[in-house]
Structures are given as structure tokens and as C-alpha cells.
């Protein structure tokens, strides 16, 4: 028997979906009032991307929003700076939710697995009905370049600035509420650093970096 071309068995309906996604990507990039949108932007037709939120969102080059991603800007932002920034080469996979009031920055070449929640605020009224609760002041979130956020991770900042250092890996089901040093591998709920890479020695070290340890190039 000759070789079988695997592409010949592809579901024809997938081609229809690809066309729909392409058309949605063109429509969104050309008609939504983003602060800016870069080249190679792709958005799945099922994404929840309110037009009103787009005016507070900056999207750079080669960014992909896959099935059921939701980007939401809450409250009434002050000023012209982006509330959500997604830098070059980022991929947000299925059902990722970013809910931002102040500032959320996703650094270049960051990958985000399915069902991740990134939220820079919390509900103000925890005693009453949640649909009637206000939005507390919250904080800001900055995820530096080259990070990976695992399945169902949660990044939540209720005050100050939460920074996930470059090239860090956030494990599945982690809940991160405090800053993480660069080159860290994080696990648990609440999250803790199980090991980190020391650039000066080029070695992996168990546990978080010491305060005297140089962890950046």
C-alpha cells in the first residue's frame, strides 16, 4: 500500500471553521477600536471580546486568541494608557479569561494554557449578591517575557504590583497572589517556588532565590 496523506482525512468542516476564524480576525483587527493591533493577529470566532473593551487594549504582532478566550476591561479606566497589553508572539489557548481594571501586561512569547484566569481586582461587596457588588481598587499584573502559565492557573492581584519574572513556569492549578522571581518553577495553592535557575552559575537550585542571589542577567 502506498503512503496515506493524513491531510486527506481532515474533516472538511475544519476548513469552514478556518475561513470563519480568518474573516473574524480581519473584521476585528480592522473595525475594533484597539489602541493598536499588530500584524498576524488571529482570533477565534467564539472569543468574547467586547468592542467597548477594545479601546483600552493594545495587541502586538503574532498574537493568537484561541477558542472561548475572554478579554474584559471593567469599570471606567482613567487616561489613555492600555489596560490590557498583549505583546509579540503570545498565545492564549482555550477559555483563558483576562479581567482587568488597572493594568495587565502579558510579556512577549508567553504561552497561556487552557482555563487560566488573570485578574487585577476583586469584588468589593463579598457579603451581598455578587451581581450587585462593586469593584475594588485592585492592583496591576505584569507577566514578563517567555513565561508559561499552566492549565487552570490563577493570577490574582488585589493591591500593589504583581510581577511574574521572565521565563518562569507557573504549574497547573496554581494560585499566584504574590510576585515571582525570574527563572522560577512554581507549584501549589497558594503558589510557592519549588526551584529556580541561577544565571550566574547556570544551574538549577531547589527553593526560591536567596535575597543576596543575583537572578537576572
Describe the sheet with the most strands.
9 strands, mixed
Question: Structurally, how many domains make up the residues?
Answer: 1
Mean residue pLDDT: 88
Helical percent range?
A: 10-25%
| Name of the level-1 CATH class | Mainly Beta
Q: Tell me the overall shape.
A: globular
Account of the protein in words:
This protein is mainly beta. It has one domain: UDP N-Acetylglucosamine Acyltransferase, domain 1, CATH 2.160.10. The protein has 2 helices and 20 strands. A hairpin with a 4-residue loop joins β19 and β20. The longest helix is centred in the N-terminal third of the chain and has 20 residues. The radius of gyration is 19 Å and the shape is globular. The N and C termini lie far apart (55 Å).
What does the secondary structure layout of this molecule look like, with pairings?
Elements (H helix, E strand, L loop, with lengths): L11 H20 L4 E2 L4 E2 L7 H4 L2 E3 L4 E2 L4 E4 L10 E3 L4 E2 L4 E4 L2 E4 L4 E2 L4 E3 L20 E4 L4 E2 L4 E3 L4 E4 L4 E2 L4 E2 L7 E4 L4 E7 L4 E4 L11
Parallel strand pairs: 1-3, 2-4, 3-6, 4-7, 5-8, 6-9, 7-10, 8-11, 9-12, 10-13, 11-14, 12-15, 13-16, 14-17, 16-18
Antiparallel strand pairs: 18-19, 19-20
Amino acid at each position: 500500500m502506498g503512503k496515506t496523506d493524513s491531510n486527506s482525512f481532515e474533516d472538511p468542516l475544519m476548513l469552514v471553521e478556518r475561513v470563519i476564524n480568518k474573516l473574524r480576525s480581519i473584521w476585528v483587527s480592522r473595525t475594533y477600536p484597539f489602541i493598536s493591533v499588530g500584524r498576524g493577529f488571529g482570533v477565534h470566532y467564539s472569543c468574547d471580546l467586547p468592542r467597548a473593551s477594545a479601546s483600552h487594549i493594545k495587541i502586538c504582532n503574532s498574537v493568537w486568541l484561541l477558542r472561548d478566550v475572554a478579554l474584559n476591561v471593567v469599570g471606567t479606566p482613567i487616561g489613555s494608557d492600555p489596560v490590557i497589553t498583549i505583546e509579540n508572539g503570545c498565545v492564549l489557548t482555550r477559555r483563558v479569561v483576562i479581567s482587568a481594571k488597572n493594568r495587565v501586561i502579558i510579556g512577549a512569547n508567553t504561552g497561556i494554557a487552557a482555563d487560566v484566569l488573570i485578574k487585577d481586582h476583586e469584588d468589593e461587596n463579598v457579603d451581598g449578591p455578587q451581581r450587585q457588588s462593586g469593584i475594588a481598587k485592585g492592583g496591576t499584573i505584569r507577566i514578563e517575557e517567555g513565561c508559561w502559565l499552566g492549565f487552570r492557573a490563577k493570577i490574582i492581584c488585589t493591591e500593589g504590583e504583581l510581577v511574574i519574572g521572565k521565563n518562569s513556569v507557573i504549574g497547573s492549578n496554581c494560585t499566584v497572589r504574590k510576585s515571582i522571581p525570574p527563572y522560577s518553577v512554581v507549584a501549589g495553592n497558594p503558589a510557592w517556588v519549588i526551584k529556580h535557575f541561577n544565571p550566574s552559575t547556570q544551574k538549577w537550585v531547589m527553593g526560591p532565590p536567596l535575597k543576596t542571589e543575583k537572578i537576572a542577567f
